[in-house]
Fold:
Amino acid sequence: MLFLITHSHSAERCPVAEGKEALEQHYRSLQADVGRRLGIEVLGLFTATIQHANFIILKSDKFENLRDYLEPLYTRGTVEVYPVVSFSQRVHELDEGREPPLTDFYCMTCRLNFFETDMDVHKGHKYYNQKEMEEIWPHELGGEAGSG
Structure:
C-alpha cells in the first residue's frame, strides 16, 4: 500500500537548531536503508525548509513497520499518514463501475446537439452521432484528415 507522510516541526524543534549531529541523525533515520530493514520501500523524500516540513512517499504492507519507521518524527513534531493511490488508478477504478457515457448526436433539422435519451424529440429528423460527424467533417471536428 502507498502512503503519503507529512511531518512538520516548529523552528525551535528543528534538528538544524540542535547542531550538525542532530541533523545527521534526523536525516539518517529517514534513509531508504532504514526503511528497507523495516520492510518499507521509500519512494520519495521531500522537504519544505522554510515551513519546517517533510513529505515522504513510501510503500509498506504492514502498518506496524510504518509506525516504527516514523517514530523519530513523532518525537520531533506532528506526523500525518495518508493512504493514497495514483490518480490514474483511482479514475480507472471508478470507470470500471460506471455505465458507458450517453451517445451525443447532432440534429441537422434543429441544428443542435442532443443525447440518445432525447431521440423521441428528433424522430423523423436527420441526425448524426459524434463518430459519424467526425467522418463527415474531419477538419472541423479534429478527425483523422486534420484539424483545419
In short: The chain has a mean pLDDT of 83. Strands lie at 2-8, 40-48, 53-60, 78-84, 104-107, 112-115, 127-129. The chain has six helices and seven strands.
